[in-house]
């Protein structure tokens, strides 16, 4: 039985569904807090285990993200039917190292797309909480 | 001549281009800071003048957004060509009142889609900064 968010009326996705959907997309939005204000950055990402891995260069995104909590959002929207899903992760950012049981080659060879190019450092979002909601049609299941 | 972001190599969109693109989409992502952490919420929105208007209910999104700065992001992605654009607004949130020279009816009759439904209070994001980037193909211009 599908759970429904009592506040929003949206269908709730469990953690496994959220991770499965994260694996179907390649662009998400990272939010960090910089000087007390939220800042959103679109990034290409790939799921590694239950973490999110992306590339960046030194700058506010990396500096602020490494200093405090981060949020990461991915969605898939179908405007004609006003339907879609979104997954939101809260967690911490760290410089990417291979996960236990994997090595650097596994990390380097992750199928991480780079639309913008020129970004050299790998970062990992380690989730604390993974939540997901779906609105409308079920054809959006992965 | 198209400006290019020296850091990312992405084409820079000027404010008018950003606002024009915002008007072509209906779902964006609002980020607020709650208890020191960034939180992202997808919302249906409409552009009113140069502001972003959306509906919400009482809760963290509204409370945290009214207390501090907010960030709002909209993008349009075309995965087959690894291209797309994103617009990021930083600004403040307020309970929506009609803009100068408009009345409540204008506000109520804004073509604001509501995919999730059941959200009764109107909020307005008043931008301080509007920035945009484009990666890849030009067919994504509105």
Structure description:
2 copies of one chain form a homodimer. Chain A has 3 helices and 7 strands. Chain A is mainly β and 142 residues long. Chain A has a 6-stranded antiparallel barrel. The radius of gyration of chain A is 16 Å and the shape is globular. The mean pLDDT of chain A is 91. Chain A binds chain B through residues 7-10, 26-27, 29, 31-33, 36-42, 57, 59, 68-73, 75, 77, 79, 82-84, 86, 88, 90, 113, 115-119, 135-136, and chain B through 7-10, 26-27, 29, 31-33, 36-42, 57, 59, 68-73, 75, 77, 79, 82-84, 86, 88, 90, 113, 115-118, 135-136.
The neighbouring-strand order within the major sheet of chain A is 2-3-4-7-6-5
Pair with the biggest interface? A-B, 42 and 41 residues
What portion of residues of chain A is helical? 10-25%
Tally of strands of chain A: 7
Question: Which structural category fits the helices and strands of chain A?
Answer: mainly beta
Order of helices and strands of chain A: EHEEEHEEHE
Quote the average pLDDT of chain A: 91
User: Which range does the strand content of chain A fall in?
Assistant: over 45%
Q: What is the makeup of the main sheet of chain A? A: 6 strands, antiparallel, barrel
Tell me the overall shape of chain A. Answer: globular
Our Rg estimate of chain A from Cα atoms comes to: 16 Å
Please state the oligomeric state of the protein chains shown. homodimer
How far from one another are the termini of chain A? 18 Å
Number of helices of chain A: 3
The low-confidence runs of chain A, each spanning 5 or more residues with pLDDT under 50, are none
